[in-house]
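Practice problem: predict the structure.
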Amino acid sequence: MTVIAKLTGVSKQFRNGRGIQDVNMELRKGDIYGLLGPNGAGKTTLLKLLTGLISPSEGTLSLFGQDLEQSFSAGMRKAGCMIESADFYDYVTAGQYLKLNASFYPDIRQQRIDEVLEAVGLSPFTKEKIRHFSTGMKQKLAMAASILHHPELVIWDEPTNGLDIEGVVHFRTLVKQLSFEQGITFLISSHMIHELEQLCNRVGILNQGILIKEGNVHELLTDNLSLEQYYMEELQKGKEGIENGRFDSGIKKRTPTDALS
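Answer:
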């Protein structure tokens, strides 16, 4: 199966002692890959590395066969992303914001803008200024912007933040539609583990910067375990493994001296 994204021995360490260490991961065409882990485990760091927002301390990253260090534009051309909270010009409308985004890509017409607004459920608010949007509506607009240019890979960091129940259900439907009908590959970081269990064919679990487990969901969930139960068990095993030296995180523990430097 075609490899869309690949991380080989990727590490990134910050001055506060956090980061990721020696991550090896492949994202294959057609995957809906869920990235799980507690707060501070390194999920957003990994996504920022994969989208070129930060550079690795060690290792290599590639998208669509292009080394991001050498050919960033070529690698990112087929990717769309939403990392952390999106920033907007609050004084423009949703339609105007997407039209501005469309200007960075060739051949995106008004019809496509209307299509993505419809896809995320914002068609009734096309002419409404973003400053009047709720947090959930802004999340939907960020999703619309990330799929505007017909990407083959979509990377979303906590996409369900701020969504109500109806919005979460709509999100699930949207991902399935884009994946199954248009062949888009997804990498999704989320704490909504029940949603990921219904969506994802593969998951990876990060703990203290280490990718402690990954695999196909149907192979991991044996003995009638839910993904939540499996995740909690693996998290505990990973914690014990790190404490006992079975996993060498390589992450430096912060000291008072570090805090002052």
